Amino acid sequence: MEIGHAGRYTQENRLLRRALALLESVGPSDSIDWIRTRARILITVAFAEAESGTLAQGLAQLDALRPEVEAVTDEAIRAELLGAIDGNHAGLLLRSGRYEESIPLLDSSISHNERNLELGTDDLPRLINALAASLSNRGLAYLEIGRIEPAFINLNRAITIGQDNDLPMRVAYVHHLLGDLYQRAGDIPEALRYYQLAERDYLELAPFMLPRLRIDQAQALISAGLADEVAKHLDDVLPQMQVERVQQDLAEAELMRATAALMEDNLSLGRKLANSARRRFKRRGSDAWAAVAALIGLRVDVAQAWRGKRIPASLPARASQLADELTSVRLMDEAAIARTLAARLEVRRGNIAEAKSLLGALSRPGPLTPIEQRMLLRLTRAELAAAEGNRRQAFAQARAGLGDLGRARDRMGGLELVSATAIHGQELGDLAVRLVLDGGDSTAEARRMFGWLEQTRAQMYRYEPVSGIDDPQLVELIAEIRNLGYALRQAKLDGRPTTRLRSRYAERQRAAMRLGWHAASRWGKPRPVADFADVLTQLGSGALVSFAVSGGAMLAVVLTEGRVQLVRLGSAAQATENAMRLQADLNAMAPDHLPEPLFNAISTSARKHAAALDAQLMRPLAALTGDLVIVPTRALYAVPWGALDSLRSRPVVVAPSATAWLAASRSPVHSGHTALVRGPGLSAAIGEIDKLAAHYEKATLLAGPDATSFRVLESLDGASLVHIAAHGEHEAENALFSRLELVDGALFAHELARLERPPRQVVLAACELALHRIRPGDEALGFAGALLAGGVGTVVAAASRVGDLPAAAAMDDYHRALAAGSSPAVALAEAVAVDPLRRPFVCLGS
């Protein structure tokens, strides 16, 4: 059995055959123990043959055994063994996707086990475990056919039996299945919580179950849009699964990895893995799973064809044929996806009648229909309406789809899940923007564009944050990561080996990230999307510029002086290249003591790219007056706007969306304390926070041994202003582990959710923590982003690296103006204007 749990089924089968030969060498026997032992060996042989060979081989073994067991005269033994045969037969069908066929067998297994309990047994623990197993599997079968209530009843009965009879492995498995149940119900944080419980026990009791768990966790993360996490998640376990050769689990893992590759637009990898998974399923005789793999392969080919000028006629025909195949194995959701893809392809080919016929044959989505399937259907209906010239209906479908997505997002937990969900609505949002642009540049279309941009970008900032999320397990895990980071830093300084520390640090980060996905049942209450009239009122004499990209074009929606207009701004690729080159130049010129010829060459390049951005993005808007709110997109998040000549000395605030800016502008202003923090390892210039204290009558100074993560987090709570001079680093691959380095280790963005009363303003003086990881839908996530999403009104930080001397000088100028009564945007504009390229600070939020 241990060899089988390790996935070495061929070796297990050989040992079982030897055991059977030894047993039969002393039989046949009428002994109850002999009959039981032989039957159990053959049942295990059946499972091993199904896993190492084909499903048909395994089922044949069980079918051959059944008449022998039915001939047993002892009713209790007969019930016990028939229950085991039926339960294992059902288990093989479950693993092959034949869920409905398994339910009558599980009914029979449960009935046999219950009858055996009535009659009495000399092996009560085994019988109770078998009953719990069949109840668990019946719950799984009901779950897979979409019957949530009976699934929940069976799983709860199984977990009660497990807890009452000290069956920890059975409890762990039911936790696993409850994760599957909540995933199907669309409650991803709760699903991940149950998976975490199962993982905790599997690690101790049953490591062989971890690959199966990883696959189901991956499916939940796909639903949440976290394709990158799925890729890392499965890339860690696929090599080991290939060694162990558990064909079903390996094929399912390849299928999930193919889905992640498709979401990340890695079509070649997606096709390779989908084809590999399909071959494995076919070899096992898992026809239903093979059809699911074919669907992923179809989606890859559709994505590839979509980039071309024409859709081959064979592709929609293949999609329709696959839909029929999926229907024949009763995979109705998957069949609906294939038929919807066929309809979408026909729309693209101009076959409107055929597309309408295909869509007309689809049933209405049910309450358990996955969000990605809902969004595909809405997208296809919107494209069909647009092809028919019915813009109103196209917009209605897009609006309904984004509403579906919003309701799914509202159920998410931590910021990672909330921000990642946007990927499911990206194509629908892009379609709406294209339809608006097709309507021209009138005021009405500009207002419509503003509305769509607000509905499709930076939605994680729409939520009123939940204060004081303080999960004890997460707090403990973050503390461990902080200590590991400190130990790692000391080991580097001492020249000691760091490999084991790095490995442990990365593993604990992953664990904290997973725990953070469900530490809060939801991030916060959603706010309504900002109305343009409310934004205009709040702007007063100022202006708001919301940038966007459609196709290859950059555009801006401008709100000012009571009006809204749409301005087209040329090539998006050109703006992106200049933004990235400007950031690279600013990073290169940051060190304080560069040789003068090198500094002059880099600054000349930086001025050139800043001038190009200015000419493309701001000169066409030269008529705008007053304070300016900028909503960036994509690479424009990295632009230090004060470096553009048109904006020199002008107050500019950068916000993720107009909705976020409006909420921050209206948040209550509290008269809290002022705190000034100095982290370790700073130069004398940047570390002079006592000089800044001269600008304030009362300020708390935290430096040296006082600048701990706990004290700094404490100082953030309820403050009016917190200035932090500390080294920091933006983690592009794991944004919520962007960090400030303090005397006892790092303060992570993850920890900001613990604040009961977010500070009004935070200044990050010595690091590049204005940087964000930009996910689809312009979901900007990083240290500054976590502060803003957590309710901080204003964050001042650098958009690129900055030298110690210019940073110190800029902060002195900034605080002098702030203490004199200037607003943050005005104070920063004056401070940056002295040396815009060397002081790349931006004012974020309000």
UniProtKB/TrEMBL annotation:
Residues of the CHAT domain? 609-831
Query: SUPFAM superfamilies, per this entry?
Result: TPR-like (SSF48452)
**SMART domains for the chain:** TPR
Q: Which positions does the entry assign to TPR repeats?
A: 132-165
**Keywords recorded for this protein, A-Z:** TPR repeat
Out of the domains of life, which is the source? Bacteria
| Descriptive protein name | Lead, cadmium, zinc and mercury transporting ATPase
Q: What is the lineage of its organism?
A: Bacteria, Bacillati, Actinomycetota, Actinomycetes, Pseudonocardiales
